[in-house]
Design a protein that fits this description.
Chain lengths: ~180, ~100
């Protein structure tokens, strides 16, 4: 079993388990955090598939902006009753040991100056390269310019719609 | 060097995520979690797009995923605003309570 396949199956387990956790968790906050984990796992898939720009957009837009919006609304509604916070007994030692592992990995990678292609085989030359990002930009702004502009109008419409929806009417009492 | 993980594996995990999203939409009654399940389904579809894009060496899949992300962001913003308004009027966000249109 080579490393690519191993990475695929580890990520598959993480993605599927976090999706199941999203379905079965009682609290919406836990569900949102499971969804962040799922997005992160899928973002690594995107990287392996030779789409680094989409992977970064996944992390910033989905796991960043959209999930912050979700968490904000969950807390705004306040309908979630979390059980009173009790720290897990093994939480702190586990966190410390994992942080140490991450630190050692980072220092090791910095010292060794390993490139990711040394660990994983590059998917293909023409897709997984900087030129692919240039091609993506060219395709987006030349061939797909009209859909791109339409999405900008869509975002504007969504923004106006959200402001109109969330605005309180003049006679309405604030709750 | 081509990708050693076959395309069918990616399609399998993508379909599985999509199915779990459908299951979440069907079995949960909290509209926030229903929204998250919809995001999960979009995520599975995006994974299939990128798997095909990588397998056939075309960039169209990546561009489509870009547009899907934009539409998802707009959809989440409007949907969450709707949920906030519903909560403001009904003081409850269980979807079973929302039966005002029932005859």
């Amino acid at each position: 079993m080579n490393l690519s396949l191993l990475l695929f199956f580890v990520l598959a387990v993480v993605a599927v388990l976090s999706a199941i956790g999203l379905l079965v968790s009682r609290s919406a906050i836990y569900a949102a955090l499971f969804l962040v984990l799922n997005f992160a796992a899928v973002a690594v898939y995107y990287l392996v598939l030779g789409a680094p720009f989409i992977a970064m957009a996944q992390v910033t837009v989905y796991a960043g902006a959209i999930m912050v919006l979700f968490l904000f609304v969950i807390m705004l509604l306040g309908a979630e009753k979390l059980p009173p916070g009790r720290a897990l007994p093994w939480q702190r030692p586990l966190a410390i040991s994992l942080a140490i592992v991450l630190l050692v990995e980072g220092v090791f990678l910095l010292v060794q100056r390993l490139k990711i292609t040394d660990i994983l085989p590059a998917p293909s030359v023409e897709v997984n390269s900087v030129a692919s990002l240039v091609d993506l930009g060219k395709a987006l702004f030349q061939m797909y310019l009209l859909p791109f502009e339409i999405t900008s109008v869509l975002l504007l419409v969504a923004m106006v719609g959200v402001i109109v929806l969330a605005k309180r009417e003049k006679g309405e009492l604030g709750s | 060097m081509t990708n050693v993980v076959p395309l069918s594996y990616y399609l399998g995990i993508s379909g599985f995520l999509f199915a779990l999203g459908i299951l979440g939409v069907l079995i949960r009654r909290n509209p926030l979690i229903i929204f998250m399940s919809i995001e999960l389904m979009l995520n599975g579809a995006n994974l299939a797009f990128l798997a095909f894009s990588s397998a056939f060496h075309v960039l169209t899949g990546q561009i489509f995923v870009f547009f899907v992300m934009t539409v998802a962001a707009a959809e989440v913003a409007v949907g969450l605003a709707l949920i906030v308004v519903i909560f403001r009027t009904k003081h409850n966000i269980d979807v079973d309570v929302l039966n005002s249109l029932k005859g």
